[in-house]
Design goal:
Structural class: mainly alpha
Strand content: under 5%
Number of strands: 0
Order of helices and strands: HHHH
Distance between the termini: 29 Å
Radius of gyration: 14 Å
Largest sheet: none
Number of helices: 4
Helix content: 55-70%
Length: 79
């Protein structure tokens, strides 16, 4: 996934968190900060892969409801 994907994810997460759970917005801030570190080359090259893994994990664990609900099935949850 590229940097733009993470930025779009973060913007959507911010929007969602402003409408419901403000704490989720903190994950969006973390993603924006990490993408800036990568883009501005502010970390040693050997850490870039670790940061990208962290970004993937954050997005997977805090999926955006509106964008990802179509892809994932939640059998035990009501609509």
């Amino acid at each position: 996934m590229d940097i733009d994907f993470y930025r779009k994810w973060a913007c959507q997460k911010m929007t969602e968190s402003s409408q419901s759970n403000m704490w989720e917005g903190h994950w969006a801030c973390a993603v924006i900060a990490l993408t800036e570190l990568l883009e501005e080359k502010l970390v040693p090259a050997e850490l870039e892969d670790l940061i990208r893994k962290n970004l993937v994990k954050t997005v997977e664990e805090h999926a955006n409801e509106q964008q990802y609900r179509v892809i994932k099935e939640y059998e035990d949850f009501s609509a």
